[in-house]
Amino acid sequence: MNKPMIQIALDQTDLTSALKVATSVASYVDVIEVGTILAFAEGMQAVRQLRQNHPDHILVCDMKTTDGGAILAELAFSAGADWITVSAAAHIATVAACKKVADQFNGEIQIELYGHWTMEDAKSWRDIGIKQAIYHRSRDAELAGIGWTEQDLDKMKMLSDLGFELSITGGITPDDISLFAGIKTKTFIAGRALAGEKGAETAAVLRKKINQYW
Amino acid sequence: MNKPMIQIALDQTDLTSALKVATSVASYVDVIEVGTILAFAEGMQAVRQLRQNHPDHILVCDMKTTDGGAILAELAFSAGADWITVSAAAHIATVAACKKVADQFNGEIQIELYGHWTMEDAKSWRDIGIKQAIYHRSRDAELAGIGWTEQDLDKMKMLSDLGFELSITGGITPDDISLFAGIKTKTFIAGRALAGEKGAETAAVLRKKINQYW
């Protein structure tokens, strides 16, 4: 099993701040994400500028695409994204439209697991060639105090067994890492925890835990 | 029952083209929508500029918010939006976070009905004070040839009976209008059909049909 990577989510509301954070964390993260907030605040110039500044990082655009798949995918991939996210609530035709554009750019699609998605949905994503999904506590659910449950872990294992590589997010701390042992994990995603004064230190502790369990 | 309004969805990938379309249709539409595509392409400057150009129109920002509700809502409302959209797949805490910000701006939330949402979800949205929802064929489903079904109309009636005002979209033609008679309809949404050479004419035919059925 490949070792999970570390991903920073940039959710600043202005590009200048986001670029500063990206520069400060680039040496210790593998994947840089233009978060939905940053993408809506500043548009695709955020993707273009981060691509230019960080040519060797994997760059994700977190659009949570729900419709208009071909055009949104074209916008993000042509701006320099390697991966884009598509909502689990999107019609399968939308997922397929995004996949087709991704293939043209050698990009990848990540399904964002929100709402009442089912394992049937997961099989239909897999059947059209989708290889990644993102599992998380929602930011707002997290604020409401809802933690990682057995049910979460069971679903992750089922997705992993179906062949999906999972990116995991939602207030991840180094102590959480052991929970996910045995799951095909693509990245662990964090924002503020990696960006602050103690960001490098947090990343180092995450790597140590990753090396312990993968 | 109030008469449905007519809404243009601006899904251009650059602001200059979108502003031109908005100016050309402003005299015969009631609601101007910054579509998801335009919002991701150009960011919140699209909302700010359209607000400035069209101070008397209702302005919608179609974010299909799925997480990070408070920050996204603040971005769009502070840029001048009157309404924002929130995905049916969002956690109820996210919907509530958006509603709270909307109330501070005298704005409104529209639930975008994608994915496996249920009438239980609809009741929970209503219970926190949400009054609008958007019902549509997905753009990609439409391209795949999936039309308005009895099931669609039944669900719309149930939502209308729960008290929701619906905006209806997805390749609407004047001949479709009669299908929705008896449903509390807030707006009919179209893009290219209202924007082209025959846009004014299409809008006039839509109004005539609306006057016939509401």
UniProtKB/TrEMBL annotation, chains A, B:
All copies of the Orotidine 5'-phosphate decarboxylase domain together span 5-207
Q: Which SMART domains does the UniProt record give?
A: OMPdecase
Q: Which GO terms describe its molecular function?
A: 3-dehydro-L-gulonate-6-phosphate decarboxylase activity; orotidine-5'-phosphate decarboxylase activity
Which superkingdom heads the taxonomic lineage of this protein's source? Bacteria
Q: Which UniProt keywords apply?
A: Carbohydrate metabolism, Lyase
InterPro entries, sorted = Aldolase_TIM (IPR013785), HPS/KGPDC (IPR041710), OMPdeCOase_dom (IPR001754), RibuloseP-bd_barrel (IPR011060)
What is one process in the GO biological process aspect for this record? L-ascorbic acid catabolic process
Transport keyword on record? no
**Gene3D superfamilies with a match to the protein in the record:** Aldolase class I
User: Sorted alphabetically, which NCBIfam families does this protein's record hold?
Assistant: PRK13306.1
* Name of protein: 3-dehydro-L-gulonate-6-phosphate decarboxylase
Q: Which organism is it from?
A: Candidatus Schmidhempelia bombi str. Bimp
